[in-house]
Design a protein that fits this description.
five-stranded mixed β-sheet; Nucleotidyltransferase, domain 5; binds magnesium ion; binds adenosine-5'-diphosphate; 2 domains; two-stranded parallel sheet
């Protein structure tokens, strides 16, 4: 409630001006989802306005549409977060087709687990990425999981084991080079699969969403490879890459503008929720 009041005050708006409310219906932890759903539904009843349960990943998928440089439909979306690594084909609002996904760890999870192995704390994705920028490329060779195989699917759990083996034999002075090897491996696989997805779908527009989309090395490599193929890459603003309320509000506003029905007030949350 204090957050809602603060956001409204900063935007110079009042509760009475709200015409709809969006909340995250799933996937996620049931307890956290229930807090948001209960508050949103109660506020909606009190204000007499429609309330919409939104899929967390749809929020990420549509977040690049909040940028000044908006992608046109259709596009391929790479969703890389702490909990998900997926390639989707997006033909419009509500028209999403899964092209491939990770068979084990998500890319962000691999960043976080590897960062922890190197003593960088948790969640250490950004710290690992910063350390890698000081590392020498090519000093350590790490696998490129499922690069040649697996079509548009990913696998990242083997990388942390490979890093664990390397770190056991190396000293702290080698950690930047190990971080660099890790980031280079993840980035190479992500870029290759994105380009494969574009080609397989005959598309030239790629949208990157989710926390790992803030990664500088990933952005640089995607931009370079896309330029070579005269394709375009769209990113949300960095502050909209990780989880945020704006993307959920935007998804809800988009659905409401299309005249879609509100979620009934007898609501549930869905810890597991296919898109
Ligand atoms: N610059 C970065 N480089 C690599 N990973 C990053 C970077 N910034 C954030 N992350 C990772 O993004 C993830 C958080 O993204 P988010 O979309 O909030 O995930 P989720 O919704 O699945 O929890 C974490 O795993 C974090 O380490
Ligand atoms: Mg997220």
């Amino acid at each position: 409630m204090p957050l809602t009041r603060r956001v409204l005050a900063r935007a110079g708006r009042s509760m009475r001006e709200l015409y709809g409310i969006g909340y995250t219906e799933g996937p996620g932890l049931a307890g956290a989802l229930l807090v948001g759903a209960s508050y949103a539904q109660a506020l909606g009843v009190a204000l007499g306005i429609p309330v919409l349960g939104i899929h967390h990943l749809e929020g990420h998928l549509l977040s690049p549409l909040l940028s000044a440089r908006r992608p046109q439909f259709p596009f391929v979306a790479l969703l890389v977060s702490g909990g998900h690594t997926q390639l989707m084909r997006v033909d419009g609002v509500g028209e999403y087709r899964l092209l491939g996904e990770t068979q084990d760890d998500a890319a962000g999870e691999a960043f976080d687990k590897t960062a922890k192995l190197l003593g960088l704390g948790y969640p250490g994705g950004p710290a690992l990425s910063a350390l890698a920028e000081n590392g020498k490329p090519g000093r350590y060779a790490l696998p490129r999981p499922m690069l040649a195989s697996g079509g548009l699917d990913f696998s990242f759990s083997g990388l942390k084991t490979a890093v664990l083996l390397l770190a056991g034999k190396a000293g702290p002075a080698d950690h930047a080079d190990i971080a660099r090897a890790f980031v280079d491996a993840v980035v190479e696989v992500l870029v290759a699969k994105c380009m494969r997805a574009l080609q397989a779908n005959g598309l030239k527009r790629l949208v990157v969403a989710g926390g790992v989309g803030a990664n500088r090395q990933l952005r640089a490599a995607l931009d370079a490879e896309a330029a070579r193929r005269s394709a375009e890459v769209y990113y949300p603003e960095p502050e909209l890459c990780t989880d945020n309320g704006a993307m959920i509000a935007f998804a809800a506003a988009t659905h409401l503008q299309r005249g879609e029905a509100a979620t009934p007030h007898a609501f549930t949350v869905k810890p597991r929720l296919p898109l």
